Amino acid sequence: MEINGHSLTLNELHRVVHHFETVTISEASLHHVVESRKMIETAVEQHDVIYGINTGFGKFSDVEIDEQDLDELQMNLIYSHACGVGDPLSKEVSRAMVLLRANALLKGYSGVRPIVIEKLVELLNKDIIPVIPSQGSLGASGDLAPLAHLALVLLGDGEVYHRGEIKPAQEVLGEKGFTPIQLKAKEGLALINGTQAMTAVGALTYLQAEETLKQSEQIAAMTMEGLESIICAFDAKIHEVRGHKEQIEVAERIRELLRDSQLITKQGEKRVQDAYTIRCIPQVLGASWQTLNYVKEKLEVEINAATDNPLIFTDEGEVLSGGNFHGQPIAIAMDLLKIGMAEVANMSERRIERLVNPQLNDLPPFLSPEPGLQSGAMIMQYTAASLVSENKTLAHPATVDSIPSSANQEDHVSMGTIGARHASQIVQNAHRVIAIELICAMQAVEIRGTEKMAQSTRELYTQARGVVPSIKHDRAFSKDIEALVEWLQEVDVKPVSQS
User: Fold this and answer.
1) CB of 440 within 8 A of CB of 356?
2) CATH for 97
3) Which of 51, 96, 194, 494 registers the highest number of CB atoms within 10 A of its CB?
4) Three-state DSSP class for 67?
5) Where is this cross-link: 5-imidazolinone (Ala-Gly) (predicted)?
């Protein structure tokens, strides 16, 4: 797969991260890289004072650096900024960060030598993936600490993932045939001034969220069968008069999923109206789809963005300082993603309650095979409630908090990487909640009669039953939940094609 700095897609990111697709570099884009590098070298020769090239960083921007110290300045920058803490980001996130940084530098606005980009791509293709602590970024001036840990490996230092373990890079690079580099003027700053940590976490989280939301619709449809829900609330006319595209589409998919079901009812047959978590599925999940669409739009821009500072504009012959490293666009997107996916879990947990609570249905209490003697799905609802409560805390927006840094020179920061990490946790929690709903929904439709199910939901039932057996007797359901989550993350649940 060729990268050029301009056209990387989320699908291509997925292929590189999860399927180890080989990455190549566009020769045409390298031409722009070479030209921007020439401008940096000319500026150094002419003793032009340019931030980050021959000045200090942050509050030290007014301190001029002697020419003989420019390379040391860049090396010092990487080492001093590599102060991340906490558990490491996953290997997948680190792979995404390497790819995104290479793609950003390839745009030709950062003034690095081609070898810097080539070495980043070499890390990917040789599966030399930096170990990057998850905490320590303010999200402006970019993801400084996480990207510094990434850059350490280019210098032959830091840690890498190797054969399922974490090893010092020095022990692995020789075995992999990787020669470290010596940074030159501007290159250290170009490597760490960017939003690639929050964007990498955000992109992978978005892809998982998209699958989770698709699956939540199919599972909700099965729950509707287990509760003999009313299909009339999904009539196209209702949704068309409101006009939200995503709401209309969710209603259409639910109708298609259940079109041949003998378990759903019409209004007045069993009851006049269902509760909101059934009746308002299109309105709520449609709003979550709106959120995901916004997030996708921002991510697709950011994965091809120049987020360095200063930027080199070769056509105009200018080196301009600005603030493209500020993570606010992705920070707000991540906070919205948190809310949208927390609501998916909220809806699912309330449907679980409707499946297990004998006061809300005519099914056996807690779907137990022997109510009283056996507790059945009682505590699975507790687990779901715990997860959605945790999500409510995580959904608090990270962007509304800002702590000034660098002696108040950097007086507003995005906290976007915190938002992205919390979004990832929320999506993982949501996946577990819908897995619990699926376990309960399968038990309910068994009681109703699986032969009466719609073809689409019956297919999902049959496949999922191969992972989690029917509840015939109380057992440790934790393993069932986690097995189903793992299966849902691997299975490609396709949305029903629209008519």
Assistant:
1) yes
2) 1.10.275.10
3) 194
4) helix
5) 140-142
